[in-house]
Amino acid sequence: MNHKHRVALHALFAHPVSNNIDPRIIKSTLEEIGAHISHGGHGQLIVKLNGHTHGFHDSHHNLSKDEVSAMRKFLTQAGVDPARDYPL
Q: Residue 28 pLDDT > 90, yes or no?
């Protein structure tokens, strides 16, 4: 995983919640950590990681705080810990 992906992953878990995260780098980061991403209907991305599946809005703008929180919850349930697995 390159530095840009690590920084993006850590940004998802930063406090306070950031709303200035580019969804393209997050999609790339998810693929880098092994997630399978497909396009669902109605502008959704279906993300599968470690046996967990979640649908996210396919945003072309910065992620909202709600989207970041949902992504953080999904990654936590899938067993991803950036501090442990991908230290900066």
A: yes
